[in-house]
């Protein structure tokens, strides 16, 4: 893998204002936070996405972190694979430097976990990406939203907005932690980042 190749950080979600506050869109919210930190604006890209180029995080000695493209597909979640494949091609990013940020039902709300490869856990965005790329071997930043209450269908739960109390007491910290996790992943590598991000608080 070339050390000079950029990273591609993709946040998953559904397009349009009606979905913007959904739990399913938390990946896209994390990319918005990374763009804010980098002082850049996401702009429409021909790969059916909005994207921006920036330096992610801070490397050793306080130097700016590695070059990266942050992006959110403009397609619906279950069609994320096409835009991701097109972005990888356009920016000449190897799949080893792809980071997909997505909501995760099987992780407690407020927790963030990092992994590379593995299954999709029923996540339609991941399933589309794995299918389009022909591999599951890419990095994931899994943003915990927890399980639905009672007997609510998980499909309904992920398409509901974060509650007012969650928007106040959970979401700002969750987005901050997830953006930090992306920065750790691209600056120090997966294993070191996992030790830092997964450490008990």
TrEMBL record:
<dbReference type="Pfam" id="PF01195">
    <property type="entry name" value="Pept_tRNA_hydro"/>
</dbReference>
<dbReference type="InterPro" id="IPR036416">
    <property type="entry name" value="Pept_tRNA_hydro_sf"/>
</dbReference>
<comment type="similarity">
    <text>Belongs to the PTH family.</text>
</comment>
<keyword id="KW-0963">Cytoplasm</keyword>
<feature type="binding site">
    <location>
        <position position="124"/>
    </location>
    <ligand>
        <name>tRNA</name>
    </ligand>
</feature>
<dbReference type="InterPro" id="IPR018171">
    <property type="entry name" value="Pept_tRNA_hydro_CS"/>
</dbReference>
<keyword id="KW-0694">RNA-binding</keyword>
<keyword id="KW-0820">tRNA-binding</keyword>
<dbReference type="GO" id="GO:0072344">
    <property type="term" value="P:rescue of stalled ribosome"/>
</dbReference>
<comment type="function">
    <text>Catalyzes the release of premature peptidyl moieties from peptidyl-tRNA molecules trapped in stalled 50S ribosomal subunits, and thus maintains levels of free tRNAs and 50S ribosomes.</text>
</comment>
<dbReference type="InterPro" id="IPR001328">
    <property type="entry name" value="Pept_tRNA_hydro"/>
</dbReference>
<dbReference type="GO" id="GO:0004045">
    <property type="term" value="F:peptidyl-tRNA hydrolase activity"/>
</dbReference>
<comment type="subunit">
    <text>Monomer.</text>
</comment>
<feature type="binding site">
    <location>
        <position position="78"/>
    </location>
    <ligand>
        <name>tRNA</name>
    </ligand>
</feature>
<protein>
    <recommendedName>
        <fullName>Peptidyl-tRNA hydrolase</fullName>
        <ecNumber>3.1.1.29</ecNumber>
    </recommendedName>
</protein>
<keyword id="KW-0378">Hydrolase</keyword>
<feature type="binding site">
    <location>
        <position position="76"/>
    </location>
    <ligand>
        <name>tRNA</name>
    </ligand>
</feature>
<dbReference type="GO" id="GO:0005737">
    <property type="term" value="C:cytoplasm"/>
</dbReference>
<feature type="site" description="Stabilizes the basic form of H active site to accept a proton">
    <location>
        <position position="103"/>
    </location>
</feature>
<dbReference type="GO" id="GO:0006515">
    <property type="term" value="P:protein quality control for misfolded or incompletely synthesized proteins"/>
</dbReference>
<dbReference type="GO" id="GO:0000049">
    <property type="term" value="F:tRNA binding"/>
</dbReference>
<comment type="function">
    <text>Hydrolyzes ribosome-free peptidyl-tRNAs (with 1 or more amino acids incorporated), which drop off the ribosome during protein synthesis, or as a result of ribosome stalling.</text>
</comment>
<feature type="site" description="Discriminates between blocked and unblocked aminoacyl-tRNA">
    <location>
        <position position="14"/>
    </location>
</feature>
<feature type="active site" description="Proton acceptor">
    <location>
        <position position="24"/>
    </location>
</feature>
<feature type="binding site">
    <location>
        <position position="19"/>
    </location>
    <ligand>
        <name>tRNA</name>
    </ligand>
</feature>
């Amino acid at each position: 893998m070339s050390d000079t190749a950029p990273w591609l950080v993709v946040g998953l979600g559904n397009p349009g204002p009606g979905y913007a506050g959904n739990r399913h869109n938390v990946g896209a919210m994390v990319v918005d936070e990374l763009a804010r930190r980098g002082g850049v604006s996401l702009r429409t890209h021909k790969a059916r996405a909005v994207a921006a180029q920036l330096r992610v995080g801070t490397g050793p000695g306080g130097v700016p972190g590695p070059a990266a493209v942050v992006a959110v597909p403009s397609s619906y979640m279950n069609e994320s694979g096409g835009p991701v494949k097109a972005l990888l091609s356009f920016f000449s990013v190897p799949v080893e430097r792809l980071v997909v940020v997505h909501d995760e039902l099987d992780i407690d709300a407020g927790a963030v976990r990092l992994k590379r490869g593995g299954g999709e856990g029923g996540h339609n965005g991941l399933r589309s990406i794995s299918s389009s790329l022909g591999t599951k071997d890419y990095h994931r930043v899994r943003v915990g939203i927890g399980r639905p209450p009672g007997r609510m269908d998980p499909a309904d739960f992920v398409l509901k907005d974060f509650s007012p109390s969650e928007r106040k007491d959970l979401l700002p910290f969750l987005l901050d932690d997830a953006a930090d996790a992306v920065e750790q992943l691209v600056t120090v590598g997966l294993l070191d980042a996992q030790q830092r991000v997964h450490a008990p608080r």
